[in-house]
């Protein structure tokens, strides 16, 4: 950005002012702006790919120098199909139900005294992310649909891609309140942002646990963190082994660079000798580097398979590889699988493969994670696949929002009370009027009460 670019403080203040107006823009207009954005992204495909090519070329130099991993470069890279998928994601967000103005609860306190709990935007949300330029568009689209102003901070490795995408967003949504979306770039801008707790309502960092912890330690703003995905697939004693092999392969190799890819495969000891030799060969054929415990290595050796399985180190059980690398462990029981997952996972996504519904339920209830699956690949943990349109990230915490965070995670609520001159004094004292506290089906309409004639 140019030297004349506004300061971070100015951008945040502009977003704060825009948020008040955006909260009152009709859903029809917000959705129309998103459809315009999707069209603009498709129209700007060549410009987007040219900018991305510049970023990728620089990243590949750092890859050759050992500074970046291949999975990091893969997450950075766009192509024509990816640009089209970004546009379709924006359209999917536009078609979601309006989360604003929805009556979440309605309660009659007394005759002609009704309380409504109604969905509203959070206000100003800020996000800090790296590598994936498509994340900038996902987050902006969700913010607009949910009526929130947004501060976007991408990684320096995607600078050119992010600038072009941001310009497309600004131009395509010019009818929205000015300043609703802001882009910051310098690392020091993040520290400035974190100090503006009077103007920013939520910050969403996407990155390592250490980075999320840094954000939490350096701001008074509520933090909704997206950290590593140390995900597991557990093949139970009662699994359909053919199905399990297909799911376990998909969970690792379909796209290994993302946070919902499996990083550790756990196998019940009673099926390990039947399952692992063929499974390890399938992984090896797909280019997966394998790291196993002693029993896994012994089974591979006894099967005389031409598969190299390195000895797993203790650090492998808590590692997010984000690449074609997998840790494999044989466990004695379902209890041992649950214990391993809870001790080493990141509370992201876990999966059990079994035909025994009771054992599946036991695993799913006892494992502490945002998403727990039965007979399904961990790769399904995604806002788009969940039908949320897109996601701003996957929250591994437990407060406010958990798992893929879509529109609901970007809203809060207000209480609206519709009365007819009631006084608190009437409900106090020696002979108070009793409250009704009756739940009823109703939507809040300003100035209207459901029991009004």
UniProtKB/TrEMBL annotation:
Give this protein's Gene Ontology molecular function annotations.
glutamate-5-semialdehyde dehydrogenase activity; NADP binding
What does the record give as its pathway?
Amino-acid biosynthesis; L-proline biosynthesis; L-glutamate 5-semialdehyde from L-glutamate: step 2/2
**Known EC number:** 1.2.1.41
Write the record's keywords in alphabetical order, separated by commas: Amino-acid biosynthesis, Cytoplasm, NADP, Oxidoreductase, Proline biosynthesis
Does the keyword section mention Transcription regulation? Answer: no
**Where's the Aldehyde dehydrogenase domain?**
9-288
The answer to whether UniProt assigns keyword Amino-acid biosynthesis to this entry is yes
Q: A cellular component term (GO) from this record? A: cytoplasm
At the top level, the lineage of the source is: Archaea
Q: Which Gene3D superfamilies match?
A: Aldehyde Dehydrogenase, Chain A, domain 1, Aldehyde Dehydrogenase, Chain A, domain 2
Share an example GO biological-process annotation for this protein. Answer: L-proline biosynthetic process
Q: Which residues form the signal peptide?
A: none
Checking Pfam families in the record gives:
Aldedh
Recorded catalytic activity of this chain's protein: L-glutamate 5-semialdehyde + phosphate + NADP(+) = L-glutamyl 5-phosphate + NADPH + H(+)
Compartments (UniProt record): Cytoplasm
Recorded family membership: Belongs to the gamma-glutamyl phosphate reductase family.
Functional summary from the UniProt entry: Catalyzes the NADPH-dependent reduction of L-glutamate 5-phosphate into L-glutamate 5-semialdehyde and phosphate. The product spontaneously undergoes cyclization to form 1-pyrroline-5-carboxylate.
Question: What is the protein name given in its UniProt record?
Answer: Gamma-glutamyl phosphate reductase
Q: Which organism is it from?
A: Halarchaeum rubridurum
The record's gene field reads proA
């Amino acid at each position: 950005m140019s030297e004349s670019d506004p300061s971070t403080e100015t951008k945040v203040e502009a977003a704060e002012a825009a948020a008040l107006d955006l909260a009152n823009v009709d859903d029809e207009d917000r959705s129309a702006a998103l459809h315009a954005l999707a069209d603009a992204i498709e129209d700007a495909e060549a410009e987007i790919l040219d900018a991305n090519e510049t970023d990728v070329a620089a990243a590949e130099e750092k890859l050759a120098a050992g500074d970046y991993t291949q999975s990091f470069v893969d997450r950075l890279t766009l192509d024509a199909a990816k640009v089209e998928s970004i546009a379709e994601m924006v359209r999917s967000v536009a078609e979601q139900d309006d989360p604003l103005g929805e009556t979440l609860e309605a309660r009659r306190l007394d005759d002609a005294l009704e309380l409504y709990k109604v969905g509203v935007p959070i206000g100003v949300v800020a996000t800090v992310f790296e590598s994936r330029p498509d994340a900038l568009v996902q987050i902006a689209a969700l913010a607009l649909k949910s009526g929130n102003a947004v501060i976007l901070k991408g990684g320096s490795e995607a600078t050119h891609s992010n600038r072009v995408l941001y310009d497309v967003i600004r131009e395509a949504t010019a009818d929205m309140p000015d300043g609703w979306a802001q882009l910051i770039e310098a690392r020091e801008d993040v520290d400035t942002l974190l100090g503006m707790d009077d103007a920013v309502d939520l910050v969403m960092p996407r990155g390592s646990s250490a980075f999320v912890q840094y954000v939490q330690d350096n701001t008074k703003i509520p933090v909704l963190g997206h950290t590593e995905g140390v995900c597991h697939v557990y093949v139970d004693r009662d699994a359909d082994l053919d199905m399990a092999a297909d799911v376990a392969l998909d969970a690792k190799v379909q796209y290994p660079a993302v946070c919902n890819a499996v990083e550790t495969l756990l196998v019940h000891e009673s099926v390990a000798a039947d399952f692992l030799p063929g499974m390890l060969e399938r992984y090896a054929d797909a280019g997966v580097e394998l790291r196993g415990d002693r029993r896994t290595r012994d089974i591979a050796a006894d099967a005389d398979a031409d598969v190299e399985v390195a000895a797993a180190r203790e650090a492998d059980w808590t590692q997010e590889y984000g690449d074609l690398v997998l840790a494999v462990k044989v466990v004695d029981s379902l209890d041992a699988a649950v214990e391993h997952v809870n001790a080493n996972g990141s509370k992201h996504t876990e999966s059990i493969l079994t035909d025994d519904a009771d054992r599946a339920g036991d695993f799913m209830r006892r494992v502490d994670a945002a998403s727990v699956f039965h007979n399904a690949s961990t790769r399904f943990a995604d806002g788009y696949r969940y039908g949320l349109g897109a996601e701003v990230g996957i929250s591994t915490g437990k407060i406010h929002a958990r798992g893929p965070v879509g529109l609901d995670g970007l809203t809060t609520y207000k209480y609206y009370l519709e009365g007819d001159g009631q006084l608190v004094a009437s409900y106090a004292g020696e002979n108070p009027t009793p409250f009704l506290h009756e739940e009823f089906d109703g939507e809040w309409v300003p100035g209207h009460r459901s029991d009004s004639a």
